[in-house]
Protein 1
Amino acid sequence: MTAPGPGLTVTGLHVHYGGVHAVRDMNLTVPPGAAIGVIGANGAGKTSTLKAVMGLIPRRATALRLGDVDLLRVPARDMVRHGVGYVPEGRHVFPGLPVERNLLLGAYLRPWKSDTLASLDQVYTLFPVLREMRHRLAGALSGGQQQMLAIGRALMSRPRLLLLDEPSMGLSPKLVDDILTVLQRLRAEGLALLLVEQNAKLTFEATSHCIVVENGAPAMTGPSATLRHDPRVRQIYLGL
């Protein structure tokens, strides 16, 4: 389902909203097959980091590359052409279209041929409920099913890098576990993942390394297995 290739490099990333310095000197790398998490309290700059990588908001950086592609020169509308998939916060499926049409729209840049149908079948294998509901309007799905649809739609473009913004938001613990299983499988298949999450448990279990963000700047970085037990993370993340 995924296309192999070099990973993401971000150096010296900054984002300003008027007089607010929302992201300060963010540095990260996401090699193929790696999953990097960005966690922090509300307003810490997590979503701004992801939107900046995607080119959805103005930003400046020393380097922002996916392999040999300079993403600073790529407008947001063309990111998918260079192997970047994006699962936005809030899902943003097309509610008036059937599930299968939503998925096929994710492959709009690819020539219509047998491998498009193969990708569709792979998404249905990841999310069997979508196969069952493929003719149902997306707007009639539950929140968890819409999240699966949003991830599946992004995968239809066969990305090298998948950006996920709060995929667990509003989901039951059972559905969060289902999403975790899918992310672990995608990582094992060689896809690079950059995960922004409020759910620290999901982030630590889904990723190899994490960046803990405070007031827009990286406060701590390290292996997820180490950070999840570090009392300083609890202090930064929860303000305790």
Protein 2
Amino acid sequence: MPYSPAHDSVDDPAVLLDFIEAHPLATLVTHDGETPDADLIPLLAQKGSAGLDLVGHVARANPLWERAQVGPVLAVFGPVGHYVSPTFYPSKAEHHRVVPTWNYLVVHAQGELVVHDDRAWTRAAVARLTQTMENGRSEPWRVGMAPREYVERQLDQIVGISVRVTSLIGKFKISAARHTADREGAAAGIAGDGGPAELVAAMRLGLRP
């Protein structure tokens, strides 16, 4: 996690897992010792006997799963953010000692990348991802709805991956260091811009979402 003052840091696992569940499309940052890479991959948090895993899959054509990794990988969930104009702060009218910034919610998970070139494992991961994403729809789609031979061909084209999490931390920058009037003003300004309701709610409550 980059620079994170104490008032912005979040380490409550329940809060962090809720955020991951709400924002599963992660930026997975890897490094082979020469070049950093970043892939957008949906990852689902899964608690197991060995701890927390982030489960997903990549295209077989993606070199990520064959490339040897140096050190831990980093999965970034979010950010959910918006620009904060100095004009949002009531204190601007008092002393003009205000500057622009960004407020945002983001979660970082570090860990070891594990490759699962295993058809049964990958099939289960795809089924779980699909079930999670389709949950709540009036007519949820299931993997079993597609022709079996088609599903088998698609499975040939992907490889399962997981990240065995060793570090999980959030940075929720919600104007916590400013007084209530400025935080409320920033929240109102972001809402007026049509910014993320999740961020606005966190700022108005002064709590973690």
Protein 3
Amino acid sequence: MNWFKSRHNYPEFYKVYREAFKQKHDDLKTVRFVVFDTETTGLNPKSDRILSIGTVAVKAFQIHISDSLECYLKQEQFNKETVEIHGLLKEGTLTKIEESDAIIKFLNHIKNSVLIAHHIAFDVAMINEALKRMDLPKLKNKVIDTGQLYKKTKYLKDEKYYSLDELCETFNIKMQDRHTASGDAFLTAVLFLKLSALLRQKKKRLKLKDFLNWI
């Protein structure tokens, strides 16, 4: 689909999304964080596709379960090897929507919030590739990677990959609904709160920039 013929002729939902960024937010007490996760057919953002998106919001360092999103996407591609991980079959009882509809729902939900995910570069890349297929620009949101945030709390500069499983075990977070998008988003939200508490102990006057990553 071709949403625009000229540089500024965006569809209405994208205009609303873009307009949200005129409002700046730096006060940690008022920032809306959206923790999200994607389940996918594989690990290549260029060739693989999103199967599901799950989110949960955090505000004033509290999880807001009512402020969440969960959607399942129709599978044009099928990888039986990944079904054992996420459990999503090509056919089934779940209501599934088109990729473009899921992306619209996602943008409407996140607005200008700060996005959080565990190893967020992958999830952002998957969303950006979906946006590209819709002839739309990349995500504009600021981002936080809980894997990198953990390193900040420990002053680690190593290249080690700290998995969500490993950090949940380290912080005694019960791993319910692991490898579902919504389940992993919630686990990551709990991890974010624990890491935030550690960071606030180390630095009294924290600002949003102390949490952010650049990808």
Protein 4
Amino acid sequence: MPADEHPSAPPSLRQRRRAVATQEIVKAAELHITEHGSAALSLRAVARSLGMSVQALYHYFPDRNALVTVLIAKAYEDLATAVQTAADATPPDPSVPRFVIAAEGYRQWAVSHPERFQLLYGTPLRSYAAPADGPTTRAMRQMSAVFQRVLFGDFTPERLAAADPLTLSPPFRAHLEQLSPDGLAALPPQATALLLSGWGHMHGLVVLEVFGHTSFLGDHQAEIFHLAMRDLLTDIHRRIPAADADGSE
């Protein structure tokens, strides 16, 4: 070990107790959302469920927005983990593309945790605004990176740059090129447009199901989603030129 490097000190007893208490508060808040919905979330209700005063809870979360930020970031992280786990698992049917498997991981988490999914994508909570480039943004980028990999991992940057997502207006192309370099700007504008369009299609079907708009399909909701994701992937990939079309491989 270099002379200027020292092992970090272990967390103190006070820090460990704070971490445990914080985790308990977050779990209690998640349970409250599951039972009552995100709009009913309040620090007082969470404190009451833990047998503590709201003044004591303020030592861990100074206001409701601070707790909501942690809950949203954690929901994004859990959703991203579900998608990542699905994408990395050995598929029972090797013929199913990894993008379809990852999309089904997205859907399964959403239908299994509808209240937390609605916290992310339902009616915005009144008086709440996520901190700019904060933990919620970073967590969302994590999930985006998984879908970028399973959707475009087999294509070179040159082929992605030559993709045909229909015509992009000059202002839109310029906007895509100026996105944060650790976000979607890692992709050429054409691929970014394809990713956003595909995500909107996938996400829209999941929202319809989570909000009960496709309940008339009964047990066939998973099947229609699977078929739609296969068609979506075929449509996206046909817009990317073949390996010998641009001389890149």
